[in-house]
Amino acid sequence: MTFKSHWRKVVNLVMLGLTGVCALVTVSVLFFILGYLLWYGGKSLSWDFFTKLPVPVGESGGGMANAIVGSGKLLLMASLIGIPIGLLGGVYLAEFGGQTFSFIVRYTTDLLNGVPSIVIGIFAYTIIVIPMKHFSAFAGGLALGVMMIPIAVRTTEESLRAVPNVLREGAFALGTSKWKTVATVVMPAAMRGIVTGVMLTLARVAGETAPLLFTAFGNRFWSSGWNQPIASLPVMIYTYAIAPYEDWHRQAWAAGLVLLALVLLANVAARFVVSRGIALRKA
Amino acid sequence: MATNASEKARASAGAAAIPNGWPADIKMRASGLDFFYGVRQALYSINLQVPLGRITALIGPSGCGKTTFLRILNRMYETVPHARPKGEVLLDGEDIFSQDVVSLRRRVGMVFQKPNPFPKSIFDNIAYGLRINGMKGNTHDMVEKSLRRAALWDEVKDQLHKSAYALSGGQQQRLCIARALAVEPEVLLLDEPCSALDPIATAKIEELLFNLKDICTMVIVTHNMQQAARAADYTGFFLMGRLIEFNKTAIIFKTPAKKETEDYITGRFG
């Protein structure tokens, strides 16, 4: 009897310790990365980094202004493609879909989510770059936009499903049509979850390198419009980090830090905007 | 007095469209109404007349079909897949199943078991129905009028732009009544509106329902027999999908015609 209760306590302690250690490992990996980036990136960061173009090898100084703007443009294009399709697709699945077609859409979405990003890059290469015979910001934006769709669809669907049915019925009972109910009651109630999902997927594609390598390609100068090769922070990091120059490595660290900071900033801004509305009370 | 109330209630209903031969004191009528969830039959040949400008209570044990019946009256059952009525339900002499469902629900409002305010401000909750239905006029005045009718104005007039979730449960339910009243329905369906409320909040709602008889016809589903006895003019007793008895409330509670009714109201089962 006493042995048994003793044993139970030991097992309890061991399990508690194990889960604690794993939780610690999770956060320490993140803080290790953050600390490393802050240390090395911060050291190399200067005002020039945000305002100047890259300089040829051998010259010191220069920055990645074109890559910062380029990443912004690529993400804008990706959002214009990925968010409307993902949002409306999620609304369809949660509010309007039937059985068979919804199953197919949901299954396909999950498959698309599992497609390696380089394959998505090849897809954009095949349908945009080859016919146009040159790399372009548009092709890169399309590749990233396609990557955004699955998570946007599924998080929108989940967020809408979490809205209690009594709210829908409350709107129906006032003589509100289905579409208006979704647009004016259900979507606002689910907005926090939807925005979180969209920010997640935006953050994910912001760091994608592979699909940009043969779509947006890269550019050491300013790129105007959507029809030319364009620089982006992840591709710059890739190029600079594998180059054999000390100076370029420092620039790569700085670029990593800036990329992370921009994603965090966008996240915080979006949450701030959403948090000003009235939250759905948890039942 | 009685006819006066029904005339007032009818006056708000646009009486012109009512066909000849439709009784002056009846608002809705179900005849030979069956109802199915898939293959399971939930209602059997219900015949019931909802009197105009009166409160009609539906009582009965859980699962007897009273809520199902209520949700037919504004076709809310349509949100459930494979739900299917058979028979006839008339509103002012017109078949509700062949009408446009959106305009039917605009005329037949509903208050639910649990308060379900929208995640918006108090003001926007009431104004919602007005905006959706494109109503003209001063929105603020209409909101105030609805809140006064629901006996909530004095409690919330200084916090109209606060979240509706800041209100207590009883206040939220009155807000939901005000929201339903804002679109000026001819019939108001109430599905156990007090089941989540304490006795004081319940008394407030019963009192306000009494005062609403002038402007609309009400049908209330309740588990609480005292509530039916206090608030309702007419009472119907449901049992296992059948309407056992329907009559004036005083008759149902004092001299019921059927043994099942007597057993239920005296607490011998249910």
Describe the structure.
- The complex is a heterodimer of chains A (283) and B (270).
- With 283 residues, chain A is an all-alpha fold.
- Chain A has two domains: 2-44; 50-275, MetI-like (MetI-like fold, Orthogonal Bundle), CATH 1.10.3720.10.
- In chain A, 76% of the residues lie in helices and 0% in strands.
- Chain A has helices at residues 2-44, 47-51, 65-96, 100-114, 117-132, 137-161, 165-172, 178-206, 210-213, 233-241, 246-275.
- In chain A, helix 8 (178-206) runs antiparallel to helix 11.
- Chain A is globular, with a radius of gyration of 23 Å.
- The two termini of chain A are 44 Å apart.
- In chain A, 38% of the residues are buried.
- The model of chain A has no long low-confidence stretch (mean pLDDT 91).
- Chain B is α/β, with parallel strands linked by helices and 270 residues long.
- Chain B has one domain: P-loop containing nucleotide triphosphate hydrolases (Rossmann fold), CATH 3.40.50.300.
- Chain B is built from eleven helices and ten strands.
- Chain B has helices at 2-11, 66-73, 101-107, 122-132, 139-149, 153-156, 169-182, 199-212, 225-231, 249-254, 259-265; strands spanning 26-37, 40-51, 55-59, 83-91, 94-95, 108-111, 187-191, 217-221, 234-239, 242-248.
- In chain B, strands 6-7-8-3-9-10 form a six-stranded mixed sheet, sandwiched between helices. In chain B, strands 2-1-4-5 form a four-stranded antiparallel sheet, covered by helices on one side.
- In chain B, a hairpin with a 2-residue loop joins strand 4 (83-91) and strand 5 (94-95).
- At the A-B interface, helix 7 and helix 8 of A face helix 3, helix 4 and helix 7 of B.
